[in-house]
Design a protein that fits this description.
Elements (H helix, E strand, L loop, with lengths): L1 H9 L26 H17 L8 H19 L1 H5 L4 H22 L2 H6 L3 H11 L2 H10 L2 H15 L2 H6 L4 H25 L5 H24 L18 H45 L1
Helix pairs in contact: 1-2, 2-3, 3-5, 5-11, 5-13, 9-11, 9-12, 12-13
Length: 293
């Protein structure tokens, strides 16, 4: 009964700005929550399945549970809070939303290793079907290919740069399907990217993982710098920025800084974490060789 109530609540019609059809104004911000069924129902189902399946007796650790709910909460904030509606008015808010998806929610969900818990949350027959599907040769070949660190790195880079082309980015604010495709591809490619680095690589490939994170940080910083230092507006669809005391170019520059500086810090921290793990692994191997001698 509680689960049905939760789904009904999250699937309620979106609470848009107080003046429907008009650009979001500052005084309407806190009323601008969005409960789109296409977003909230999948979030609710995922939460219910994980709550059912996440048990310490099944090998799910407290740290993994914390990572999952933290990542899930960030997804909810990015996609349902007033930040989502504000992103239709301010480019910098839209950029913040994307960074939350790719640099906060995605790595936390990957660290949570939620697949086992989600499968345990399914009915028995569905778990068996999922197991049979995962063992098919076609599925395994596709997964091995797309989860290879270089392929995941390349896909994530292509997605990131392609969607920042002005014609596509502008289309996200005029077409809901395009907007949904952007968010799905950002989150999906980010999940694949972080999974390939944290779980997909063998331990001896820590060095390559550090390189992939470093190069991702470099090319995203370049994109952020281009947005920051540009003397022209890339996305003319943002025409209501003056409601928030910003010119369109200033809004774009703030968005570029968000991609450039805070995002760069996340990549550096992740690279340092993998580098530390690499060094610890090397120390263990050296100690093992000493004892063997």
């Amino acid at each position: 009964m509680r689960r049905r109530a939760l789904i009904a609540l999250l699937a309620a019609p979106g609470i848009a700005s107080a003046h429907t059809g008009e650009p979001l104004a500052p005084h309407d911000l806190w009323a601008a929550w969005q409960f789109d069924p296409w977003i909230t129902i999948p979030l609710a189902i995922t939460a219910i399945l994980y709550a059912r399946g996440a048990r310490k007796s099944r090998g799910i650790t407290a740290a993994e549970i914390t990572c999952f709910w933290s990542g899930w909460g960030i997804l909810f904030i990015a996609l349902c809070s007033p930040l989502h509606t504000l992103g239709e008015v301010l480019f910098c808010a839209h950029m913040t939303q994307h960074e939350l998806l790719m640099l906060a929610a995605a790595p936390l969900l990957v660290l949570a290793r939620p697949l086992a818990a989600l499968l345990w949350g399914l009915p028995m027959e569905w778990r068996r079907r999922a197991g049979r599907l995962s063992r098919t040769r076609t599925f395994q070949k596709i997964w091995i290919f797309i989860s290879a660190p270089f392929v995941a790195w390349l896909l994530h880079a292509i997605v990131l740069w392609t969607w920042h082309a002005p014609v596509l980015f502008d289309a996200t604010l005029t077409n809901d399907a395009v907007h949904a495709a952007q968010h799905i591809s950002f989150l999906g490619s980010a999940l694949l990217f972080w999974w390939s680095l944290f779980h997909g690589s063998r331990r001896r490939e820590y060095g390559a993982a550090v390189l992939y994170i470093f190069t991702t940080g470099v090319h995203t910083s370049i994109l952020g710098a281009l947005l920051t230092f540009s003397h022209s507006v890339w996305y003319p669809v943002y025409t209501s920025t003056m409601l928030w005391g910003l010119r369109a170019l200033e809004d774009q520059q703030i968005g570029g800084l968000i991609m450039w500086v805070p995002a760069g810090v996340v990549y550096v921290a992740a690279a340092l974490g993998l580098l530390a793990a690499w060094l610890r692994e090397s120390d263990v191997l050296l100690e093992g060789r000493k004892y063997a001698q």
